[in-house]
Amino acid sequence: MEKQKEIVIETRIGTQSVSMDKVIEFPRGLLGFENHHNFTLLQLRDASPFLVLQSTEEPKLGFLVADPYSFIDDYPVIINSVDEETLQVKDPSDVAVLVTVTIPHGRPENTALNLTGPILVNRKSRRGVQTPLNDRKIPTQLYLNIESS
């Protein structure tokens, strides 16, 4: 029997066709959403730093995320041994770091990156984890000062 190469998922931004090799497995789920394990990253616009981490199973479950290094240079993330094993890390450069983005309704100027719970994705194994950071030296949020148009 041939393996399925693509799936069609419903999202808040419409119907999307997703290649199975773009599905990311989160064995432990995400914080607060531990029962959801399969997600994909959807590009909102070309050259945009923002993506949607979309559940492949639940259309209403999607998180706006971004690469924090697009906005700040110094954001130290240490991968603990449990996460390293879950991600199946062989080379740390294979791990992408994402953070959730909050845009308050009607107040885009208050858009903020949540720096307390980075999402780590191994690009090669297609496995991910979300890990809380306990370093009090790292700010909890970074406001982006986005102007409304």
From TrEMBL:
Q: What is its main location?
A: cytoplasm
**Cytoplasm: is it a keyword of this entry?**
yes
* Any Pfam family matching the protein: FliW
List the InterPro entries hit by this protein, alphabetically.
Answer: Flagellar_assembly_factor_FliW, Flagellar_assmbl_FliW_dom_sf
Transcription keyword on record: no
Q: Where in the cell is it found?
A: Cytoplasm
Task: Kindly list the GO CC terms recorded for this protein.
Answer: cytoplasm
Q: What keywords appear on the UniProt entry?
A: Bacterial flagellum biogenesis, Cell projection, Chaperone, Cilium, Cytoplasm, Flagellum, Translation regulation
Give the record's GO biological process terms: bacterial-type flagellum assembly; regulation of translation
Family membership, please give it.
Belongs to the FliW family.
Function noted in UniProt: Acts as an anti-CsrA protein, binds CsrA and prevents it from repressing translation of its target genes, one of which is flagellin. Binds to flagellin and participates in the assembly of the flagellum.
Assembly mode: Interacts with translational regulator CsrA and flagellin(s).
Q: Which NCBIfam families match?
A: PRK13285.1-1
Name of the protein described by the UniProt record: Flagellar assembly factor FliW
